[in-house]
TrEMBL record:
Its cofactor is Fe(2+); Mn(2+); a divalent metal cation; Co(2+). Binds 1 divalent metal cation per subunit. PANTHER family: RIBULOSE-5-PHOSPHATE-3-EPIMERASE. Substrate binds at S21, H80, G156, F157, G158, G159, D189, G190, G191, G211, S212. The active site is at D48, D189. The keyword Metal-binding applies. The lineage of its organism: Bacteria, Pseudomonadati, Pseudomonadota, Gammaproteobacteria, Chromatiales. It catalyses: D-ribulose 5-phosphate = D-xylulose 5-phosphate. It comes from Thiobaca trueperi. HAMAP family: RPE. Keywords: Carbohydrate metabolism, Cobalt, Isomerase, Manganese, Metal-binding, Zinc. This is Ribulose-phosphate 3-epimerase. One of its GO terms (molecular function) is metal ion binding.
Amino acid sequence: MRALPEILGDTDMTPDLIAPSILSANFARLGEEVDNVLAAGADIVHFDVMDNHYVPNLTIGPLVCEALRKHGVTAPIDVHLMVKPVDRLIPDFAAAGATYITFHPEASEHIDRTLQLIRNEGCKSGLVFNPATPLSYLDHVLDKIDMILLMSVNPGFGGQSFIPATFDKLRRVRRIIDESGLDIRLEIDGGVKADNIAEVKAAGADTFVSGSGIFGKGKDTDPHHYDSIIRDMRAAMAGVSR
Ligand SMILES: O=C(CO)[C@H](O)[C@H](O)COP(=O)(O)O
Ligand SMILES: [Fe+2]
């Protein structure tokens, strides 16, 4: 893992965090994939949980999170819950070693209660906004949030294209966070790659999920693929102001 000064952004004191989404990793060798991407300089592990109900896909649960911890992963694990209902799984993920737990407001009957439950379980809490989800869900709960995650694709699958309307939404959320004075991360998820990450940072993001952009093409032919792709991402963001 890299030292804090190395991961500080150029223009402010909020470090840029690169969060590979393991949705696009090789699940048959998941521990090794996570070790390799962290050794290549990634900061946190993005862990997509899909239930074939809230989204039309089915992935992994708390057992896999626990297995990564037992394997020796010490980096923060950022659990993105695409499940409905949400609350039942939160204590299980907390016990399994999750660091962040984020959920979609449409999937919770009581958003305030779910946010409090996440913090009470000792994790950092976050709300996730689909491309068409209004930001009004932030009203009245901002002080209970550690991370706002904007989806730049519709949830359910990796490898989709970044939806350009997200840039405006990022700028609006950046303003809300800055005006609040609260310590809240702004994460972006979907279609982020080395060639658009600078623009995404300039619009306000500080935490960058990338699945197919990191685990996709190139890794089977180049043994240093993860190092070079993460280096390219940092180089693209260097000198870019949020
Ligand atoms: O939450 C997700 C999908 O619902 C994934 O985190 C996301 O799509 C990452 O994959 P990619 O970078 O390939 O778009
Ligand atoms: Fe995700």
